[in-house]
Amino acid sequence: MTKAILTDIEGTTSSLSFVHDTLFPYARARLPAWVAEHGGDLAQLLAWMDADAKVTELKDVQGRIWAAGYAAGELTGHVYPDAAEALRRWHGDGIKLAVFSSGSVAAQKLIFGHSDQGDLSPLFSGWFDTTTGPKREALSYLMIADALGVSPADMLFLSDIAAENDAAKAAGMRAMLIDREGGAGDIASFADIVL
Predict the structure, then answer these.
(1) pLDDT above 90 for 187
(2) Dihedral of alpha carbons 33, 39, 43, 46, sign
């Protein structure tokens, strides 16, 4: 029985293009002013950004810039309608929902709290980022299951990255690969998921 569902964001609940074509350019354009006001190594932050590095310091700065953008109404988080519908249904059925993304917990809450599908943040019981551990290591998923108080065998993980799904499976979770282009994944949308 599925007691909890853990989901990735980018490419799973939200489009890759939203992150790469909206959020990253928004933060990059405002980074020099942020560094001038708050301090920091602009060259290092830009290098990490160019490399799409999963560095906590960069994710923190990006999150602060995005928070200001969401608060000003300049940003709206993208969430696929099928994902929002399924998340609401599963929450209503008493299934615990959680997020595990390489984006910071603060950035996760912003996307779901200011989404084009409404404020979805109250649906979630847990938020996890790479401070929990790497997404491609089974131990990270074991730690998340423990934090949620759910056996890994009673959890489903959703991601568009096969190596992440492999790590979740190695931890004892059920995992589904989503391919929104309808290619080699297990599912093409959240509507295809049978619990």
Answers:
(1) yes
(2) negative
Cα 116 to its chain centre, rounded Å, is 16
- Give the whole-angstrom CA distance, residue 95 versus residue 61: 33
Residue 58 scores a pLDDT above 90: no
Amino acid in the structure at residue 16? L
Say yes or no to pLDDT of 183 above 90: no
Q: What is the residue type of 108?
A: Q
- Look up tokens 């920091």; give the residue: 40
pLDDT of residue 177 exceeding 90, the answer is yes
Domains and CATH numbers, the chain: 4-15+77-192 (3.40.50.1000), 17-71 (no CATH)
